[in-house]
Amino acid sequence: METEVGVGANTLLDLPGVDQDLVDKIAFDALVWSSLHGLVVGDKTAQRSGKVPGVGMVHAPFSLLPMSFPENQFNMACEVAPIFNELVDRVSLDGKFLQDSLSRTKKVDVFTARLLDIHSKMLEINKKEDIRLGLHRSDYMLDEQTKLLLQIELNTISSSFPGLGSLVTELHRNLLIHYGEQLGLDSKKIPGNTAVKQFAEALAKAWTEYNNPRAVVLVVAQPEERNMYDQHWLSSVLKERHNVTTIRKTLAEIDTEGELLPDGTLLVGGQAVAVVYFRAGYTPIDYPSESEWRARLLMEQSSAVKCPSISYHLAGTKKIQQELAKPNVLERFLDSKEDIAKVRKCFAGLWSLDDSEIVNHAIEKPELYVMKPQREGGGNNIYGEDVRETLLRLRKEGSEENAAYILMQMIFPSVSPTFLMRDGICHKDHAISELGIYGAYLRNKEKVIMNEQCGYLMRTKVSSSKEGGVAAGFAVLDSIYLT
Binding site: what residues are annotated? Predict the structure, then answer.
């Protein structure tokens, strides 16, 4: 089921109306375009690829052609983005709600417990975040049976691919301008995607609000980051459009080089930091020692704008998502009945493991559920028979461990034949897609400076794969063809 670009094979012929020669031509042009326009990631086979820019690069995995998606559903997802931005901000200000909702999870999940400890310290010293910046991404799947667009999760930390996602949109438009007639597709049906420009604009506006022209934006990065170019795109747009300088540091480097001045200014390597932009710190493996936790606390105590602050980070946990789906909880945070109805319509079924009726049903029909721990970054969820086994084990042990998970309704999106490009090879397979809508939110005290939907990310994966992370190796980047 694969063909080297330029090498004829008959396996791709059964996609309606697309012959092999045409696929080879499009694939070749796509690879050239990707190389020329920075649609690249570090090549895991090259030793220094995650550390040194420009060494060991390979095109990011992408789909050869855009995925069709209903225009009305796309518009609806865009419409609710500012409401979700506002919701995260309101939830983040309710320290008691965050602490209470995660109190049981804290007992059995060490990582969540450490985050909550930092949050508790900030509550104790009555730390106020006057300038609050959120760069979010809400992920959805379109359920084939109900035709409902259901939210999978809301990312409030390290919402990746604004850079590369915007580029895939450009790639697909470019390919359809050249090949659209032969394919019967119109390039104008691919919606514009300005995620990287709008995220950079939000960071620049937060930098301006901080009001120290000599300060920098600190990008907190993992020690080996093969997805560095997605991040460098943001830094590049920040510099070129807004003349804002970024520095990149790991949590360990921040622990070594960071200091807090008496007025709350954060210095890293002697440079004042206006905005801390986290592209690390969302997973336990980012904290191999106490050094990294010290760095996280140091940044949280500072006056720098955190993207996200510890409370924004916690507002994005799976447990909070499940709490918000309970009856009458949204009413605590949102004023407009219309907004509440729009948000609620996006919620898939979400349950705590205290709900014995649902747990029994999940043991009986595990294929209808997903078990999710409080983790970001792909590769953590439990599916199928493993759901039954895990639930039976937890019940038998009678431990508190069930508080570490939530149960979510399994969503069944439609399956489409598609071409997936990875490592210069074009595969044809049956695939499903996940739509991410970016949002940026910035406020200074009472004044909302920015609350916008900021472009989108389409990820497509082989239908047999459960997980959806591109960086984790499960999916490819895609764009949308409105139908």
Answer: 137, 153, 155, 157-160, 225-227, 231, 279-282, 318, 372-381, 383, 408-411, 434, 459, 461, 467, 470-471
Q: Residue type at 382? A: I
What confidence category does residue 480 fall into, taking pLDDT thresholds of 50, 70 and 90? very high
Active site residues: 137, 153, 155, 160, 318, 372, 376-377, 459
Task: Locate the DSSP E strands across 76-227.
Answer: 131-142, 149-155, 216-220
Grade residue 406 by pLDDT with cuts at 50, 70 and 90.
Answer: confident
The answer, yes or no, to whether the previous bond of 308 is cis (omega within 30 of 0) is yes
For residue 149, the one-letter residue type is L
- Residue with structure tokens 């003349």? 243
- pTM score > 0.85 for this model? yes
Q: Which residue has the tokens 């895609």?
A: 478
| C-alpha dihedral (157, 467, 436, 473), degrees to nearest 10 | 80
Tens-place pLDDT, residues 428-450: 989 999 999 999 999 999 999 99
Burial class (CB in 10 A: 0-12, 13-18, 19+), 436: buried
d(CA 310, CA 306) in angstroms, rounded, equals 8
410 class by beta-carbon count within 10 Å (0-12 exposed, 13-18 middle, 19+ buried): buried
What confidence score (pLDDT) does residue 402 get? 74
Binding-site annotation: residue ranges for Mg(2+): 153, 155, 376
Q: Report pLDDT digits (tens) over 137-153.
A: 999 999 998 899 999 99
Mean pLDDT of 16-40: 92
DSSP state of 347: B
> Binding site for substrate: residue ranges?
137, 157-160, 225-227, 231, 279-282, 459, 470-471
Q: Is the pLDDT of residue 472 over 70?
A: no
Place of tokens 């939210």: 151
Q: Which residues of 285-306 are buried (b: 16+ CB within 10 A; e: fewer)?
A: ebbeeeebbbbbbbbbbbbbbb
Tens of pLDDT, residues 78-103: 999 999 999 999 999 999 999 999 99
Strand 425-444 with 2-4, pairing = antiparallel
